[in-house]
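Quarterly update from the structural biology core.
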Amino acid sequence: MEKVVMAMSGGIDSSVAAYLLKKKGMAVLGVFFLLFDEPVNLELAKKTADFLDIDFHIEDLREQFSSQVINPFFEGYKFGITPNPCVICNQKIKFPTLNRIAKTVNANYFATGHYARVITVDKTPYLLKGIDNKKDQSYFLYGIERSFLHHVIFPLGEHTKQKVREMAEKIGIPSKIAEESTEVCFLKDKRYYDMIKLGKEGPIVEMSTGKIIGQHRGIHLFTIGQRKRLGISSPYPLYVVKIEPSENTIYVDSKEKAFMREFVVSELNWLFDIDGKEFSCSVKIRYAMSPEKATVKLIDENKVKVCFEKPQFAPTPGQSAVFYKEDVVLGGGVIKETMQDF
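Predicted structure, tokenized:
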């Protein structure tokens, strides 16, 4: 019997994924990651493991999660960037831990409840989008170690979210009552900017005129593309179009000025062999968007320049840019700087 280590959050997705693995005849070890104090759904995860009659283990990762995910998240905002904690967590915490536990218990596989797929062609595994376009989570997975694709299973990749809900209801698993997790789990419905001490005040400048039109209470309160909470009055909508930490300045202007065509991406991770120094693909610069056509040019081994065919709204330093060839994830990296036409 094949053994698999399953990340179980207590939510519907991971619970149904565990059920599907057991249904396939695999021996499942459910692992709950203790990432911060007062975790959500721990008891539901235990009940679900009991319900499915699978072994259950709690892995305490609070120290690593704090130092590698939570602290960089808040520090990033202080320096004018907008980090993506889910990408970092998968890359540095969840997948390496699952791989380590799998080796410890002599399991050939580990699994998560992500909506994504792995397909192997000629002994080479590739990461693909999940079939549910609205729920596909491949964007958050581009940063994992490529070798992990030989061992990871995504049981939900061939299912829609609606189908998973129906299965949970039919099976009667305890986790069917769990609430959907928030995007930033450790905030617990709090606003990130309420959890950072006030920064240094500075000017808000209208980019097109160069005029100072207000004062901000810290650049950590802003992100590119932001319209609300600017603290200024204007007869027309204004958006954050640039954050300049060296000047402690927030630049605002019309929405069209937040559209950009080119930006630089570094901290690259490739899940596909790339030939040449330039290639065409589709690129996502945030989770909730469709991939858009672009050209990617290699600057060096850890930096590329992305040029969209059509300008896209608010490419944001700190966020991830993920490269696709149809459904296949080629790789991705972190947006470092944008090229603006002003």
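The helical segments are 12-23, 42-52, 62-78, 85-104, 161-171.
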